[in-house]
């Protein structure tokens, strides 16, 4: 912590300047009080972490020069998070936590009992970027557009297994030890629960592991963090 | 979900009315639109869940009559959460999540790098109550007053082991399998990290298991949820 880290969505070519938009330049100069000559860490999600020097930063924009790579690129395991959007703060929270916990892709889904008609995809993506900046990561998970779960499951690649957190399954939690590794998706339901049609659909799919998350009914945001944690500890890069 | 559940801190004696304060009575009548004759679920943290009938509920107060016990009392495992308070929203969040995840006691601690001088203990306790109402639990963890960690460790009962999440230990997460059961406390550090003195103190204590939470640095609130999840899955009641 403490170190300034910025995600900059540009190719990193040593000797070539990175351009800052007004917002990032103001963050460096106005908020963090950093001026020309100061060194910060930057990453673009593909080329690891680099040390960069501030050449210019003011309210109109700025420029950085790349100095040297400070850490290799590290991608998370091939884990997706599918979740039904909740109220604003809890949805923001899920995206932040998923990025910290090392989800590779975040897919908001519309279920039969989801209220959300749309999501603020840009705001959610910004939360994922900020989480990556904070947690020292070099990868930023993509936040997909809101998609109906049924449509997603129709075209589902059966090589990607699904960890299905079913709140109706209250009881001892399954152990994830023994589940095969490879691509997975964690699927978290809406506050209103799964519909009978969704339950039947998921129960009939191959490669779906239905799990309980203990004897108390977790809120959907808690369930997302708990399920990602259990997956990372058992099958991921923890 | 859906069922109205109220925590009522009174002895449950069948045949004896439960009295509602103006706030709970207004919640039932004004917010949830429930009137005399409607049935709700109540719990007091000791006697399980009961079905109760509304006898009266308006802006001044109200009364319920107990009908029958609907679920036995279920206490969480003997797990404490010690954490350094963060900003308001994240502290509220940790308390909510700890209650959902089945912590028995929540202890905000002052560490060498904690900024908080005080906590809104009443507000935090209310969050724990609301989480218990939401998650179908019959137990409400007590939120203790803010206490210096050093003082807490001085009088520490060595029978209670400590799961110490050390953000400096970045790397493969330890498996908790093999750790002994019994009373435990999960200890989560402040955003500013542990001081050298705290590190030395904790490293020298018997019964302290130091764990990593994976290769990314987790925010303190994420670390709290992740560590409670791993403990519950390995040693708790999940």
UniProtKB/TrEMBL annotation, chains A, B:
Catalytic reaction list: uridine(1498) in 16S rRNA + S-adenosyl-L-methionine = N(3)-methyluridine(1498) in 16S rRNA + S-adenosyl-L-homocysteine + H(+)
Localization, UniProt: Cytoplasm
GO BP term, pick one: rRNA base methylation
InterPro entries, per database record: Alpha/beta_knot_MTases (IPR029028), PUA-like_sf (IPR015947), RsmE (IPR006700), RsmE_MTase_dom (IPR046886), RsmE_PUA-like (IPR046887), tRNA_m1G_MTases_N (IPR029026)
Domain Ribosomal RNA small subunit methyltransferase E methyltransferase: start-end pairs: 76-232
Record-listed E.C. numbers: 2.1.1.193
GO cellular component term of the entry, any: cytoplasm
NCBIfam families assigned: PRK11713.3-5, RsmE family RNA methyltransferase
Similarity section: Belongs to the RNA methyltransferase RsmE family.
Functional summary from the UniProt entry: Specifically methylates the N3 position of the uracil ring of uridine 1498 (m3U1498) in 16S rRNA. Acts on the fully assembled 30S ribosomal subunit.
Name this polypeptide is given: Ribosomal RNA small subunit methyltransferase E
